[in-house]
Amino acid sequence: MSFCVALDGPAAAGKGTIGRELARRFGFAHLDTGLLYRAVGARMLDGMDPVEAARALRRDDLDRDDLRSAAVAQAASKVAAIADVRAALVDFQRAFARRAGGAVLDGRDIGTVICPDAEVKLFVTATDAVRAERRYLELAAAGHDVTRRSVMEDLRQRDRRDSERSTAPLKPAGDAVVLDTSDLSIEAAVARAVDLVMQRYTG
Questions:
Q1: Which residues form the domain of 172?
Q2: CATH code of 28's domain
Q3: Which of 32, 55, 145, 176 could share a disulfide with 121, CB 3.0–4.6 Å?
Q4: Residue 119 predicted with pLDDT over 80
């Protein structure tokens, strides 16, 4: 039995946290598809052609220590705008989505491009100010030398690049449920997502 939950939304909206918790609650496999693009971006920063990097991506590439850095995040947003990079990663994501036992995928184009037939589609969002503060605290706690102003600018650049790209732009699927986490605790946001999945999932 396959059952797919598609989570889309901008950076630091909470989709990764929600995705991991949904996978735990329902026993589904979880894929943070952003890691695929971060891994390709990291390889590009190493000097590799991004399309070659996407086609040669290995599971080990997803375990690099620098994938959460600001530099890699910007590189990921840039390579994600390259149509041939996205095409190289589509089959991997679609196969994961239809694996037996259910799957949760979070990213930017899961409900619109990768899994348009997903049983549940959520678009997780939050205000720029809330997302920037969350990302600043996350990066600062990890020891990165960042300021709130630099993090806000980084998020806005990524949002602009993700939403304006010609290939698979960031936007809610027509039938996605929009979940705004701006004023929600993690627990409340997860609870709403769990309720939505429960309405569709019969086990």
A1: 4-200
A2: 3.40.50.300
A3: 176
A4: yes
